[in-house]
Amino acid sequence: MNAPVSTEPIFCFEHCQKGRKIYALQIPGECPLCGVLLASSELILPPFRVPSPFSRSPHSLVIRPTIGSFLRDYKNARDLHIGITNSKGLVHDYNEKGVNFGSSSWEQCVSVPLQCRNARRWDAELRNFSAHGDWFPQNYSESDHNCLDFVVGFLRHAEATVRVSAPLCKEQLCAELILPRMTQAAKYVTLYRRVSAETAYVSAS
Ligand SMILES: [Zn+2]
């Protein structure tokens, strides 16, 4: 999946009916509600970019669909891949090929920044942890030694040194940190698909 992923922003504005938000990838020439030329009329709410949930931050959990990109391929939270970034935002992730460093497939991902009290040691700990034999390709198991085990394993490994404040069990990490971000991302994906299918999408109220 090396095709470039779309980063087109979604614009939002209101023209003639308060509360009826108009979303589009490009501001249309005419208002989809009243048909008036937008260039020559007042807007209730001037266009702004809808904040994108996608970013790649340092010292973060990073999440993307296992195959493809969020905007094109995301279906539900059951098919996700997770990794962890170093201080430069370089992703370390574990799959059947072993640990990957800085793979280009993380162009469009959701970040969950982690609070840590000793960021200085983060990169060295992540490097050491990634080199451990536990994460050789032959040890990979889709059900119980996978990308999430790698991430939680790192958080546990580095608990004493980098002092990260995150749950250290898989279930809690998913429920508290990952799923809320996925809900947010899914809303954006739905909106993006609506606006790319039509010239503009108008909210009900
Ligand atoms: Zn209008």
Automatic annotation (TrEMBL):
InterPro entries: MKRN2OS-like, MKRN2OS-like_C, MKRN2OS-like_N. Residues 9-35 form the MKRN2 opposite strand protein-like N-terminal domain. Residues 47-195 form the MKRN2 opposite strand protein-like C-terminal domain. It comes from the Eukaryota. This is MKRN2 opposite strand protein-like.
